[in-house]
Specification:
single chain, alpha+beta, 5-stranded antiparallel sheet, 12 strands, 30% helix
């Protein structure tokens, strides 16, 4: 074998290795992006399942003399009551400034008496992070909106209107981790009707 033949063989072999490495690298990038997208989708699905399951269990609770299922109703947070063994349990779901989706559970005070339960001494007994990824709740797309008297609102401030909430629309957007190339996932679900 001459020197020229050896050089041509090495050049062809080098081109094969470079193209194989390029294909392998592209496959790895696609795999990482698809894995990130799957993770984001699963995180959104898990968080939505918890939110909707809890919101379907909303019960009325007497707070300050008014029978309510909800006591805080904004686009980025909702506080509601679900049945518990010692009285209605207060649940608060919110998105903080960092985009973390939290669920805070508070049992009624042991000294409170039905039907006027209080929640002053047991604040935030259990706080759980619902989504492992960044959740967004912006003015354009709030996390929560409320069906009240036939219309949709992103914030309900009057107790009389809160008592009329027929359903909560949850629009959950979970962002992909930075640098993965994965897309954000948005899920929309409606939880209701309220159990009286």
């Amino acid at each position: 074998m001459s020197m020229a033949e050896l050089a041509i063989s090495l050049m062809i072999f080098s081109m094969l290795i470079v193209s194989t490495l390029a294909v392998t690298s592209q496959v790895q990038r696609l795999y990482a992006r698809d894995t990130a997208s799957d993770d984001v989708t699963q995180a959104a699905k898990n968080a939505m399942d918890v939110l909707v399951r809890d919101l379907h269990g909303v019960t009325h609770n007497t707070v300050s003399g008014t029978s309510l299922g909800y006591s805080e109703t904004t686009g980025s947070a909702v506080t509601f009551y679900v049945s518990g063994t010692t009285g209605p349990v207060r649940e608060r779901v919110s998105v903080d400034a960092a985009g973390v989706l939290w669920k805070e559970t508070t049992l009624p005070d042991t000294a409170s008496v039905a039907p006027a339960y209080t929640y002053a001494t047991n604040l935030g007994q259990r706080t759980v992070r619902l989504a492992a990824r960044t959740a967004t709740a912006t003015g354009a797309t709030p996390l929560f909106s409320y069906l009240v008297n036939g219309s949709v609102s992103t914030s309900v401030t009057l107790d009389s209107d809160r008592a009329s909430i027929a359903a909560v629309v949850v629009t959950l957007t979970i962002s992909a981790p930075v640098g993965t190339g994965g897309a954000a996932v948005t899920l929309v679900n409606t939880a209701g009707p309220l159990i009286a």
